[in-house]
Amino acid sequence: MVSFAYFGMRQAPWTLLVLIFFIESVMGNYIKTFYIHWNTTNSIFRIDNTDHVFDLNKGNAQFEYDQVNIICPTYAPGTFEEDTEKYIIYNVSKEEYDTCRITNPNPRIIAICDKPHKLMFFTITFRPFTPQPGGLEFLPGKDYYFISTSSKDDLHRRIGGRCLSHNMKLVFRVCCKPEDQPRPPLPQPTQPTTLPPPTTQPTTSTTTIKPVTKKTHKYDKTPNEVVRSEELSNSRGAALASSLALALAASAVLAPLAR
Fold first, then answer.
1. Contact between 142 and 121 (Cβ < 8 Å)
2. Which position has the higher pLDDT, 58 or 208?
3. I want to staple 75 with a disulfide (CB 3.0 to 4.6 A). Which of 13, 68, 79, 196 is the partner?
4. What average pLDDT score do residues 119-123 get?
5. Which residue, among 149, 129, 150, has the nearest Cα to 138 in the 3D structure?
6. Could you give the CA distance from residue 107 to residue 111 in angstroms, rounded to a whole number?
C-alpha cells in the first residue's frame, strides 16, 4: 500500500512532518518505520556499502507490518529548477534493477517527486494485501526492487539515468517464506501420571517372650538318680514290712507264755 502527501513549505514545516510520522507510528499496525530521503546526497545509495538493502517484517507478529516513508527532495523557495532533483521511482524486476533499464511498457510507479519546492513523501506499508484496488501487495519471502532512471534533464527517462550514475536503487526483502516462519511448538502429549507404589514399611513388632518356669518333675532328673531313689524307697519299704511281720510273729508266740 502506498499513501501520498505533500505540503507547501510555509504551511507545513518540518515539525509537522515529524508529528505526522509520530502519529502514524502510534496509530498504525506496524512495528518499524524507515525514512528514506531520495536524493543523491543520501549515503545509502553509495555503491561501497549495503545500506540500500532493507529487511522488513522480520520478527513481526501476525498482522504487523513495517512501513517505509520515501521523502522527495525539497528546496527552499527561489532555488533554480536546474539545481533541483526530480524523480520517478519504479518497482521493477531483478533484471531491470541490475541493468538500470526499464523494459516493462507499463512499469509500476511508486512515487513521483516533481515538485521540488513542496514537501512530499510517500508511505509504503509492506503487507500482503491492500484495501485499494490495484494497490501494491508485498508477499512474504519476496524481494522488491525500487529504482529511478530519471536524469537531470529528463524526468521520464527509463534507461540509465541516476540509477546508473548515482546508484539510485534499493532492495526490500520481505520476511518470511511460509516454511521459514517460526512455528509455535507442538503441544506435548500429556503423560499419564504414575503414582509410585506405596512404600511398605517393615512392621517391627516387639514380642517379649517371657521365660516359662517349668515345675521340676522327679523324672526330669538324671535317669540313674531316679532309679537309685526308687531302689532306696523300695528297700526301706521292704525292711519296714519285714520288721512289722517279725513283730507280729513274736507277739503271737509270746502271748500264750504270758498266761
1. no
2. 58
3. 79
4. 96
5. 129
6. 12
pLDDT bucket at 135, cuts 50 / 70 / 90: confident
- Cα(104)–Cα(126) distance, integer angstroms: 23
Q: Judging by beta carbons within 10 Å of its beta carbon (0-12, 13-18, 19+), is residue 246 exposed, middle or buried?
A: exposed
Between 240 and 147, name the one with better pLDDT.
147
Q: State the cell numbers at 226.
A: 531316679
Confidence at residue 31, expressed as pLDDT on a 0 to 100 scale: 76
pLDDT at position 132 is 78
pLDDT on residue 52: 94
Given a cut of 80, is residue 124 above it in pLDDT?
A: yes
**Residue 51: which of 210, 170, 191 has the closest Cα?**
170
HEC assignment per residue over the chain: CEEEEEEECCCCCHHHHHHHHHHHHHHCCCCCEEEEECCCCCHHHCCCCCCCEEEECCCCCCCCCCEEEEECCCCCCCCCHHHCCCEEEEEECHHHHHHCECCCCCCEEEEEECCCCEEEEEEEECCCCCCCCCCCCCCCCCEEEEECCCCCCCCCCCECHHHHHCCCEEEEEECCCCCCCCCCCCCCCCCCCCCCCCCCCCCCCCCCCCCCCCCCCHHHCCHHHHHHHHHHHHHHHHHHHHHHHHHHHHHHHHHHHHC
